[in-house]
Design a protein that fits this description.
The chain is mainly alpha-helical and 209 residues long. It contains seven helices and no strands. The chain has helices at residues 3-28, 33-45, 49-58, 62-72, 78-132, 138-193, 199-208. One of its GO terms (cellular component) is plasma membrane.
Amino acid sequence: MSVLFWLTVALTVVAVAVFIDRLLRLRKIAIDPQDFLQGIFTVLDKGQTDEALAICDETPGPLAALVAEAVTHRDSDEEHLREILATTAHAELSRLERRTMLLSLFAQLLPLIGLIGTFVGGYAALSAIDASAPLVQPGVAVHAAAGALATTIAGLVGAAFCYAGHYVLVMKTDALSLHMDTCVALTLDYLARNPGLGGEEEADDDGAE
């Protein structure tokens, strides 16, 4: 087998590893925004903002990060708070999509590598026929052509997997993005209805002094 064949195999293996890693990551951070926010709001209703932030820190994923930012900057005006949450959401999504883009890159590279392998194998086959002329050895030409076809097939199979894997990850990321929008809307609504958030906790601290 040619170097190009093994290159396509190596890139496909990397693509599989990236897909599995991203899929497991997305499953790990996939939480129900309604249930999570209900728990956070219950804690905040008691004035325990530090406890709410601790829960957010212990919960992986962008939903918890957004809620933590909202609670931390709860005294900011709504416009400024929206800007903070939008920046946080963009950063979290960019972090999730960073490795996913490798699948898109490999999906475009693998067919090209396979095509180059076909041309290289075809050239090798013609060179073998020319070198053995006038007594052509069919086995030499067939071996070179088989290597070319193997590289092409490997490239197409790898590209198909990358396209499918990228589609799956994009769909899951889009679903997470919708959950983030829901989370932001519900959190902003809660903060708007509770302008004195944290007052009870601060009052307890003052009483202790």
